[in-house]
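Researcher: I'd like a structural prediction for the single chain below. Treat it as a standalone chain; there are no partners to consider.
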Amino acid sequence: MGDATLQRRGWLLSAACLVLWAASTLSFAWYAFVVGLSAAQRQALEQSLHRPLETTIEPVVALLLSTIALGVLTGLSLVYYGYAQWRYARGRRLALESELETDRQ
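Model: Treating it as a single chain, here is the predicted structure.
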């Protein structure tokens, strides 16, 4: 597996995470603001801070938690993609510098 394959996979992972996070965010925003929350759903969101394990089966709370998790995963995948790009550029620069040194001698 070459550097190009790793870069392509890192880019695809980052793009997929970003798309999933955007879809989850839009879904939560639609559900919370356009459709509106029922009294039971608002109560479940309020109780999610005090009793997180009991309220995770509520769809609104699960959607909110998945949106947060996908946001974190998106950030981590973008950091990894940036690191992979930096590592590839550094390796390429070192290879070119060594070729340049060889050509000078």
